Amino acid sequence: MFDLTGRVALVTGAGQNVGAGIARALAGRGAVVAVNDYHADRAERVVQEIVEAGGRAVPAIFDVTDLEAATRVVRSVAETEGPIGILVNNAGNAGAEAVKMAQFVDMDPKDWHSTFDVNIFGVLNCCKATLPSMIDQGWGRIINISSASGLRGTDIGVSIYSAAKAGALGFTRALAAEVGKSGVTVNAIALGMIPPYEIKASDPVLGERIASIVVGRAGTPDDPAALAVYLASSEASWMTGDTILLNGGSYMR
């Protein structure tokens, strides 16, 4: 069950955190994983971890906001490893730039673009680069990593991020409807809080937020990794156009 042997996967933003966890999990189930990151050293480090664990992986260095670069690397991977059948659009936040949190009324419009570029156009670019070969294969899995911020409003200064993530969720449903009969499924995972570092019990900033999580802990990269393995598998062939909430019960609907 959930055997990915013979599949080739591309995971974007996989040089650290959630993306790295997903890349390791897919490789652990037999997939050859193209580990994408904007920073070559990050991607190569994850590739090394996968290879040392007995899996197969190659670095895929490109900026997801650059369609030409994405297309070129996808073709290169196909030539050496085979056509990509699994795409995990994980690259997010503000891409190569730092996230700038601010109330919308106080934001400079020039700060909108980096967030939209990676969370919307990055998803579109990677889908555009990989989808034709999935359709040719008659099999494909697209998994868009989103956020609960795309489903509900908050006042913490992430309105542009929320808008971009919500847009990607709408695209998930529309694309699923377009390509379903081609054997390609398209789903999204809306994540809750998964900090990029180990949380100390005395952390005053995150303590209150963690206390509100029903299961009593923040998420780890292993949580979405397990779900991504299922969505990437043949066993998930009857699930498409869906957005799965994964947040420990901090947001339910």
Topology, element by element:
Elements: E1 8-11, H1 17-28, E2 32-37, H2 40-52, E3 56-61, H3 67-81, E4 86-89, H4 113-137, E5 140-147, H5 159-179, E6 184-191, H6 207-211, H7 222-232, E7 243-246
Parallel strand pairs: 1-2, 1-4, 2-3, 4-5, 5-6, 6-7
Helix pairs in contact: 1-7, 3-4, 4-5
In helices, the fraction of residues equals 40-55%
Secondary structure category: alpha/beta
H-E order? EHEHEHEHEHEHHE
Mean pLDDT: 93
- Specify Rg, calculated over alpha carbons: 17 Å
- How large is the count of helical segments? 7
In CATH, the homologous superfamily goes by the name NAD(P)-binding Rossmann-like Domain
CATH topology type: Rossmann fold
Strand order of the largest sheet: 3-2-1-4-5-6-7
Beta-strand fraction estimate:
15-25%
CATH class: Alpha Beta
Inertia-based shape: globular
Number of domains: 1
Largest sheet, strands/sense/barrel: 7 strands, parallel
If classified by CATH, what would the architecture be? 3-Layer(aba) Sandwich
Please describe what this structure looks like:
40% of the residues lie in helices and 16% in strands. The chain is of the alpha/beta class. It has a single domain (8-244), classed as NAD(P)-binding Rossmann-like Domain (Rossmann fold), CATH 3.40.50.720. Strands 3-2-1-4-5-6-7 form a seven-stranded parallel beta sheet, with helices on both faces. The radius of gyration is 17 Å and the shape is globular. 42% of the residues are buried. The model has no long low-confidence stretch (mean pLDDT 93).
